Amino acid sequence: MKLYAIFGNPVAHSISPKMHNYLFQKLGFDGCYTKIVVEDGAKLKERFFDLSLKGINITVPHKEWAYKLADEVYGIAKEVEAVNTWYEKNGKIYAYNTDAPGFYESIKEYAFENILILGAGGTAKAIALYLKEKGYNPHILNRSAGRLQFFKERGFICYTWDEFEQEKYDLIINTTSAGLKDEALPAPQKILKPLMQEAKYAVDVIYNKLTPFLALARELGLTYKDGTQMLLYQGILAFEIFTDFSFNKEEITRVAKEALTL
């Protein structure tokens, strides 16, 4: 049996095991998927090999460590410098980022032009660069300036909370962990509320929870969604990688959607 897991902190809320184990069972693949708390990102590789894992998903706050520690990095993950999927082959770790295409698939139904991304971590990097590839020019808003350098070097318009200038955005995306373990907003309400009053859509990458960010969106009448569909689509891509692309994608998609309704 091949073993898989999700590494991060926290991971208690993760439904990735539910989806992947259901896929393994229904598609007849001899695999098992669990969740493991990893507090120190520098030890990702050590834990991975100690547990004899074949593949993992990596969630907050370790996606940048996952990039640094991989042997080979593919696709947009090279530019993003953040990874959410590892696959072991012949003792080497091959790394991918399925967050960005998974997220884009989840929002394709919306009609938008101007985009604001809240946060500047690994998920924000992936989404921003992927959206730029698709012809958009998202702006980035983060608490402090340190992490914004990555975005500035790549031509994005960036703001800290202190220097933010009010603009109108169709789509506001929360990529921070605010609301995951607490009831915090991803930015001060005096900034967020006027922004959301002008917006059409709000999307949170956190799933299975009405975060304070999404609660505010609902209160203000926006169309909103959590990260469940992003999880679905990035999980489908990860499953393809985990199983070395040996299953039909349409069948994976059908079974994965079924898993999330259980």
Structure characterization notes:
β10, α8 and β11 (201-204) form a beta-alpha-beta unit. This protein folds into 2 domains: 2-97 and 228-259, Rossmann fold (3-Layer(aba) Sandwich), CATH 3.40.50.10860; 101-225, Rossmann fold, CATH 3.40.50. It has a 6-stranded mixed β-sheet, with helices on both faces. It has a 6-stranded parallel β-sheet with strand order 9-8-7-10-11-12, covered by helices on one side. α5 crosses α6. The chain has 11 helices and 12 strands. By secondary structure, it is of the alpha/beta class. The two termini are 24 Å apart. The chain has helices spanning 16-27, 44-50, 63-69, 77-80, 99-107, 122-133, 149-152, 189-198, 212-219, 228-242, 249-259, and strands at 2-8, 31-37, 55-58, 72-73, 85-89, 92-96, 115-118, 139-142, 158-160, 171-174, 201-204, 223-225.
Write a brief caption for the model.
The chain has 262 residues and is α/β, with parallel strands linked by helices. The protein folds into two domains: 2-97 and 228-259, Rossmann fold; 101-225, NAD(P)-binding Rossmann-like Domain (Rossmann fold), CATH 3.40.50.
